[in-house]
Each structure stands twice: as C-alpha cells, then as structure tokens.
C-alpha cells in the first residue's frame, strides 16, 4: 500500500514535470517566463570530462536507489525482505490506549525489560495521536507517508538553500529514490520515526544555512530548536548537536525547544509517566547488545568486536567531535561541523539501528556541496550512501557466507570462536564504513577550516 501510494504520487509529479518540460521546449513565451537553472542531467553531463568518477558514481547510485523499491517487492514476495508490519506504530497506539484507560504508558514484558513496547518520551504521542484515530494499517501508512513527505520537502528546502533549483520531474525522482534508500524503507516497514526525525535534522541544516546571511538571527534559533526536538524524542541522536557548540543562538534554540517540550509534556501527561520513563532509560542503558552473527535487519553494531572498550571509545570519539567543533567555531565552517556530528551519530550512539542511517541523508547533501566547493572528491559522499544503503543485506551476506569460508565458528553460533568471528563480522558491516567515510571526510574539512581559516572561509561556505 505505502509503496503503491508513493508510486502514484511519483508518477503524477513525473507526468506534470514532463508536461512542463514540453511546454518549455515548444513555447518561447512560456520558456522566457519560466527560466530555470540547468537540470541535474545537464549538470552531470558538464562534469563528464573533469569528474568522471563522480558522474559514474551518481548514475550508478541513482539506478540502485530508483530500482530498489521494485527489488524489495520481489524480495518480499520471496520471503527474503521484511514485510510492512508497522510493529512500532503498534507500540504507539498501545501506549495511547493505556493512557486513555488510566494505566502506565510503559509496561515491562515477560523478560523484565521494555523491548517490544513504547520506548519514547510521553510527548511524542502528541505527534502520532491524529494517525491513531484511523484503522491501524491506514493510520500507520498515513503516518509513514506524511513522515517521508516531510523529509522530502525538507530536502527540497535544503537544495534551494544551497543555491540549486530542482525541476518537477527531478523532485519526483527524489521522492522515489528516498523510498529506495533501504534504511528509510525499512524504517517505514517497522512504523518507525526515522523519516520524521530525518526531516527535523534536515530543517535544522536549512536553518543553519539561512542564518549565514547577514542580519539573519531567527533561523539560527530555529536550527537549534529542530536539533533539540530530535534530541528530546531520541536521546541517542545527541551527537548531531555538535553544531550547537559553535553558535550561541543555535544552543539557546535547542535549550528553549527542550524546555518547552518538557513543559508541554508535563502539562498533558503529568509527572508519573516521566518518572516511569527514567526507568525505561535505565533499562536501555543496561540492555545486552546481541551479536551481529544473530542477524536481523535492524542490526548495526559498529564497535561490537571492541565491546570491552566500546564505551571508552565512544567517550573519546565524542570528545574529539566536540573538540573539532569548538576549534572551528570561528571559521564559518558550521555546515561541515553539522555534517560531522550527524555522520558520527550512528558510530557514537550507545546502541544504533540500521534505520538511524536515514538521518545521514542531509549530511551527504551538504558534503557533496562542500566537496565541489573545495575541489575535493564529491564521489566519496555518494559511495557513503551506497554503503549505508547496502548495510543490512551486506551484513546478512557476511553472516551467512563468511563463517563457513573462514576456519572459525562462533560462540553465539554453536562451535564458533567468538572473538575471531566478532572481528570478522564487525568488519563486514557496510553501513559502518559508510558512516565512517562520511565522518572522516567531514572531520578533514573541519580540520582544514581550523588550520587555514582565512583560506577556507569562502570555500567551505
């Protein structure tokens, strides 16, 4: 249902876009009154000689993303890919039903934890409440459709803020490509909130870029507020707040949004659910991380092989990101600091899942623009997208085919040496390398801006 609806929307936009292109080509007055910048295909063609790697990477990635909804349909029919079950949306409706009945929003399961139940702060229920008034499948599909359209619209604002204009048919293909991005599509299948949070992250970047204009103050507060909203709803997204360290307005915007949201939540739900939520957070902190060898599509385990020191590594990584952000605070390199925080989020979060990678989309867009501005390697962000896209099935291939090839077995899988197997399978997680590639690239541009602030000021901006 969801893919079909998006398909119809894409088709309508494509047909309307083709009609506009025909009118532009055949009607001179119309063409003069609707003068537009060159299309993406023409821009790619212009780089065929000087940037062949980028052109090949862009076309290859476009084919992969645009075809994936059809591939996913075949895989679902074959029982390989996950179906559209909207499990997490069921957790939202269940929490609201309990609240209406005067019961606790949070309930422990038979194992003593909270897995499989509602895990977000109480205030998030206000966002999904309108959709829970519909029949379950209809409400879940409507929630995900609105979330994806929100992300799609935010990305169009971002592209416009960077100085480009998309034609209508290009906007249609962008929508279909988003649905073809596996972390996003899997998030939709689960009824997750990743597209909604990705839209907020993108709007935060739009506000950051808007605030770069002289005497423009409000967008800075809006940028911080959007980041703050994401952090309140999902604390593990905290690393995306790196850019808050470089600007007082963004920091105050995030603080104001957090306080306002908390006050609203208290007013609507009262004190008791928030006390219960603290117990959920304590449980999440102590929960066991299952081995990636026990593959499931959400698994994303960047530091699993280094489990004894993973907490220390995350602390060190967070300090490095914060240090780089502060070092670049006076260099006008805010956009690469933003990309650095977003790209490292799935690496530094205490426990991330594959659908968290949806939030990296705006970081990819801005790093593409930066790489062109500094005459760098714009094909690298595209490679990162491909790695993020192929994470879940890449990990599955590693789990299913590597253990029989190498002479080791796993403790989690009977007869396998755990240490060696963990190292092997941890290294074969495409999404980890994609996030690392994007993060290292952003870190390099932050360092460049910090070491040569005058030379980098105009190029990075």
Question: Can you characterise this structure?
Answer:
This protein has 461 residues and is an all-alpha fold. It has 4 domains: 8-35; 38-78, no CATH class; 82-287, no CATH class; 288-461, no CATH class. The chain contains 21 helices and 2 strands. Mean pLDDT is 87; it is low at 407-412.
Give the N-terminus to C-terminus distance in angstroms. Answer: 42 Å
Given helix and strand content, the structural type is mainly alpha
Radius of gyration: 23 Å
The major beta sheet can be summarized as: 2 strands, antiparallel
* Uncertain ranges: 407-412
Percent strand equals: under 5%
Question: Roughly how much helix do the residues carry, as a percent range?
Answer: 55-70%
**Shape, please?**
globular
Order of helices and strands: HHHHHHHHHHHHHEHHEHHHHHH
Summed up, the domain count is 4
Mean pLDDT: 87
In spatial order, strands of the major sheet run: 1-2
Q: Got a strand count?
A: 2
The number of helical runs is 21
């Amino acid at each position: 249902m969801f893919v079909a609806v998006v398909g119809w929307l894409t088709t309508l936009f494509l047909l309307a876009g083709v009609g506009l292109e025909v009118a532009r080509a055949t009607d001179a007055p119309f063409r003069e009154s609707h003068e537009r910048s060159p299309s993406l295909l023409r821009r790619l063609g212009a780089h065929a000689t000087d940037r062949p790697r980028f052109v090949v990477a862009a076309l290859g990635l476009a084919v992969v993303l645009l075809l994936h909804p059809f591939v996913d349909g075949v895989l679902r029919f074959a029982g390989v890919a996950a179906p559209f079950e909207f499990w997490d949306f069921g957790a939202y409706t269940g929490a609201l039903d309990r609240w209406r009945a005067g019961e606790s929003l949070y309930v422990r399961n038979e194992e003593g934890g909270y897995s499989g139940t509602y895990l977000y702060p109480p205030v998030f229920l206000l966002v999904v409440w309108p959709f829970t008034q519909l029949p379950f499948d209809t409400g879940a599909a409507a929630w995900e459709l609105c979330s994806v359209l929100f992300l799609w619209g935010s990305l169009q604002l971002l592209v416009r803020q960077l100085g480009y204009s998309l034609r209508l048919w290009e906007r249609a293909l962008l929508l279909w490509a988003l649905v073809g991005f596996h972390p996003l599509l899997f998030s939709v299948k689960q009824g997750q909130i990743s597209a909604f949070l990705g839209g907020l992250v993108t709007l935060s970047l739009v506000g950051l870029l808007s605030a770069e204009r002289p005497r423009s103050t409000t967008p800075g507060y809006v940028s911080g507020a959007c980041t703050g909203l994401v952090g309140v709803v999902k604390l593990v997204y905290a690393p995306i707040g790196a850019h808050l360290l470089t600007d007082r307005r963004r920091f105050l915007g995030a603080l104001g949004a957090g306080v306002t949201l908390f006050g609203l939540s208290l007013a609507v739900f009262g004190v008791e659910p928030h006390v219960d939520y603290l117990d959920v957070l304590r449980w999440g902190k102590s929960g066991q991380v299952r081995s990636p060898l026990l593959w499931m599509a959400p698994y994303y385990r960047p530091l699993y092989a280094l489990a004894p020191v993973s907490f220390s590594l995350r602390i060190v990584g967070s300090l490095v990101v914060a240090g780089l952000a502060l070092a670049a605070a006076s260099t006008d390199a805010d956009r690469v600091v933003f990309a650095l925080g977003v790209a490292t989020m799935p690496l530094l979060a205490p426990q991330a899942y594959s659908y968290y990678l949806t939030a990296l989309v705006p970081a990819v867009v801005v790093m593409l623009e930066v790489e062109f501005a500094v005459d760098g390697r714009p094909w690298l962000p595209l490679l990162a997208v491909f790695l993020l896209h192929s994470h879940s099935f890449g990990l599955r291939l590693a789990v299913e085919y590597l253990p029989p090839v190498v002479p080791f077995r796993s403790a989690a899988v009977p007869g396998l040496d755990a240490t060696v197997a963990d190292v092997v399978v941890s290294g074969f997680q495409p999404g980890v390398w994609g996030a690392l590639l994007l993060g290292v690239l952003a870190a390099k541009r932050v360092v460049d801006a910090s070491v040569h602030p005058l030379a980098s000021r105009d190029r990075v901006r």
